[in-house]
What we know:
By secondary structure, this protein is α+β, with helices and mostly antiparallel strands. Helices cover 17% and strands 43% of the residues. It has helices spanning 3-14, 184-190, 192-195, 204-218, 259-265; strands at 27-32, 35-41, 44-50, 61-65, 70-75, 78-82, 87-92, 95-100, 102-116, 121-134, 140-153, 157-160, 165-170, 175-181, 224-226, 237-239, 247-248. Strand 9 (102-116) and strand 10 (121-134) form a beta hairpin. It is globular.
Amino acid sequence: xxxxxxxxxxxxxxxxxxxxxxxxxxxxxxxxxxxxxxxxxxxxxxxxxxxxxxxxxxxxxxxxxxxxxxxxxxxxxxxxxxxxxxxxxxxxxxxxxxxxxxxxxxxxxxxxxxxxxxxxxxxxxxxxxxxxxxxxxxxxxxxxxxxxxxxxxxxxxxxxxxxxxxxxxxxxxxxxxxxxxxxxxxxxxxxxxxxxxxxxxxxxxxxxxxxxxxxxxxxxxxxxxxxxxxxxxxxxxxxxxxxxxxxxxxxxxxxxxxxxxxxxxxxx
Length: 268
């Protein structure tokens, strides 16, 4: 395992107290492709194992998905999904840490979730369906598909959730970056976190209602897709032309996140 991977593992251990207060642990309900865990002991990788259906996720497990792979995890009334080429940990009852890739959170009950990444963190209070995606600057995107509640950061204070509006969570102490309206219809049609699982989310109807309300308000005014945030000052956008699919508004494509996974899975 590379020194870079070791540093990430140590950071993940130190980032929060690793325990589940009520003794219950997240349980895997679906696996597609190759999904593995790294067991951490005293900040170091002790062993690597395969994630299978019905297995429990321990607080000292770093979960990693290979290219094209994904998994779904149930915990109390919450549903979590981890996308392709992603690495994350469930640190305790209400804390989730993402190193790379993307994840989805879904709950119909009001709850508190502390989302964190390599550099940033934010607290969500409420209920709904939310996608989080790690960015190259160490922060993450917070994308509520449908939700009620608030999100707060140490430096940015508290914001009310707006369905279909992406927030960038940046820096430490963390603050909010710019907010961007997302085309929910396009996102729902294209997201594998929504479409590449055997059963629909319990919030399927609420997502449909959020799409309907957004379409009425904005009437198809979108002409761009949001890319990666490579720095706190730079966000990549892909603009749509009339006779093209999508073209980048910058000269660089999003950075590949292959190195971390090569140490686990070898060639992609």
